[in-house]
Amino acid sequence: MLSALQLTGRDRSHLIEWRPGHWLQPQVADAMEHMTQAANNEGIDLQPVSSFRDCARQLAIWNAKWLGQRPILDIHSRPMDINQLSEQQKLFAILTWSALPGASRHHWGTDLDVYDAAAVNNWPEKFQLIPQEYAQGGPCHKLACWLDKNAQRLGFFQPYQQYTGGIATEPWHLSHRRCADQMQSQLSLMTLQQCIEELDILGKEVILANLPDIYYRFIQLNTEAN
Known about the structure:
The chain is an alpha+beta fold. Helix content is 41%, strand content 11%.
């Protein structure tokens, strides 16, 4: 069992530095070595965009979006006017693309965002980490097709492969099934509530009022079919 601080991204003592600046659980790091080599054998330069992200970093992203200092996007990746949103609408709009601090799968050291570095380096446009870049015609389409065929046999799955009314589609997001399922089962609603109460997070009142819905809709994913 991990501590509440580890589950909510406030302690990384259970992780190792897999690559410079990228921290993972040891078992996940080993699995990523195998995946990286397997992808390389198919001409894909699979590299991490991000891996472990601590609670403080997620909190900074969240607060900046709440203030309108970072864009809030709709399900089609289009910027929204936050002045036209109620606090509850703003809450769920942010959650579509950004995890609640304390509840991000990136806190666990089990999840990564990945891309095809060589393909992106040869891409004439600025890389934005959006679904279109993983669709046909995008620089990471070959990677997306390869992940569809190979992620599961290498111990990973894609928790946000399809939009089901919670988090938007993220074809770049990989999760180590065994380790992530363990973390998800240990992160209780009570642990998350205590974390939110302790954070200097904007929108705290509306977050806490909607926390059960957030917990079951955005965090406790049914991963059996993925």
